[in-house]
Every structure is written in C-alpha cells, then in structure tokens.
Design brief:
The structure is a single chain. The protein is mainly β. It folds into 2 domains: 3-43, no CATH class; 65-158, Immunoglobulin-like, CATH 2.60.40. The chain has 2 helices and 7 strands, in the order αβββββββα. The protein has a 4-stranded antiparallel beta sheet, with no helix packed on it. A 3-stranded antiparallel beta sheet has the order 3-4-5, with no helix packed on it. A hairpin with a 3-residue loop joins strand 1 and strand 2. The longest helix has 17 residues, at 27-43.
Length: 169
Amino acid sequence: MNVRDLIPWNRSSSQVPSAFRGDDMDPFLSLHRNVNRLFDDVFRGFGQPSLFGGATSFNGSWPTVEIEENDNEIRVTAEVPGIDPDDVEVLLDDGVLTLRGEKKSETEDKGRRFTERYYGRFERRLALGGQVDENKVAATFRNGLLSVTLPKTEKARANVKRISIDKAK
C-alpha cells in the first residue's frame, strides 16, 4: 500500500469515499484538518534553532552574523537594522561573546482606528576560547551594523602554525 492512498485529499474524487467528499465530510475530520493547517501556517515562519543561540522569531537566524579572523584579531559583524544602539548589549565572559538586544515598535493610526505593536528579542553566543585579549575588545555601531573587534593575545598569535600544502600530481 502506498502512503498516498492513506491521504484522502490527494486522491481523485472517484476513489474518495463519501465520508471525505465536500458537503458530507465528517465534521471531526474537517476540524482535525483545519487545526493541522492552522498550526502549519503559524509555525511556518519559525526556523530551526540557530547554532549560536536559541530559536528566534526571525526565522532562526536573526541577526545575521559574519565572523572574520586574521593573525591579529577576530571581527564579528552583526546586522541589526532598525534597532537603537542603546537596545543592544555586547558581553564577553570566559571566552564566549554574547550579542543580545530587543526591538520595540508601535504604530498608531487614529484615523483608521488601529494600533500595531511589535516586540522581538535576540541573543547570539559565539564561543571564542581563551585566545582573545579581553581588555582591548572594542565595539562600534553604524547604520544598523554592530562590529566587535576582538584582538588576539600574544600567546594565541605565537601559536599560529603555517602548514604547507603538498600539490598532488
């Protein structure tokens, strides 16, 4: 038996028993299908939990974070458009960089008699290990981009090993 045979709304109408046809549909089956659709529609906007934080209401990946590393520093850039810099918090604790913030918005149109409120929080955590000089960390916020520069310690810079690559013939 094929799984599609078990799903009544995917079969042609000639194969569908009368209990599943339009007007005389079983009310409990109809309720069940409508509730399933409701939950599917509600949770469609939520993405998978992100690797660096919990699931968010912004498709699981908000804010977008870009990490760059060179011999001297690690630079983390987060896109947080529309958020006031005072609503963003940057923490470095035991080698873990935490970016967190919230956005609040309220729109009121008295002519049309409606008010719209929006509220969202985010938190991203990035494990950096003990290679960052915590006393020299700097953060800037410009045009919706939060940039955090994390200079590496002398020990971390000295431990960098270049590995030669053999070319296969």
